[in-house]
Amino acid sequence: MGSLPHQQEQAAAESQVAESPMGRYGPQVSITRFDTAPRELEWQLPLDGELYRHIPGPDRPDYSLLVLERPLHFYPAPGFDVGRVEAEQRVEDRKGRPMVRVHALLVCARFVGQQLHPGMRDLSVNIAYVIDNSLARDAVVDFAKIEVAAVGYLNEGHPGQPTPDGNHTVEASVAPAHGDVDDVVADAARVLRDGVAAHRGRPVEQLTATFVVGGDHRLAGLSGNADGEAPVPTPETFERLGAVLARLGRMPHDAGGGESQASRDGLSEPSGHDGPTRRFTVRVEGESVVRERDPDASA
Prior knowledge:
The chain is of the alpha+beta class. Helices cover about 15% and strands about 35% of the residues.
């Protein structure tokens, strides 16, 4: 194959950049999963934001400032000097434990030879919290204004939004379609917990939720308690819940022998769609997920 003239290559590159999803500050990006990260960051996925500017550092020239769509919170490590953080960024969780609120991250490609680029998918990046917002005005990265956070994967666009190639960006926190009903319910509970934590901007310690699932395998009702409050998630959480609960439609309603699978899994009144309505109650505490059996489920 022949190569494009330099001018055409440059025009093609500029066109690709122009087609990238843009926000108020710059290209939209999202951190959708982590390789290594503290648990409270997992609860706040996805981390949507915009690339504000490039900032060279003392060790490399290609750091990028990522302004978050919503602030995130982290627990400072032992020995962390809270004096490095402005007073309005010092907060507490429901148990009175100190946390730090940040509005931006500093990211860079994890591996030599890689860079942030238009159309990127699952680019492995090093992530640091920006604990001093004056970094946005600095000519060079000052490491005293950041705190190492995690290693994660960066994608162009925000989850569920179309990308320039016409596809949709990946959805965070949705498990692959496998396992039994208990696996589906557990995954739905984790998605809900993470969505509630993202909506509040702080981790959820304990969650009890009841999902009412219609015969079309869509969420028909939701109730429960998350650390003493109603479990209100972000709007996009409902899309992720729908993707998880849809896996129920690929499972047999009768596992064979004894009571029906639907009865064991919380069968209630007919829904008037493709099958009966089912009700699932589950408790989440830390990494523990326990599904509660309703003694009246088969009534």
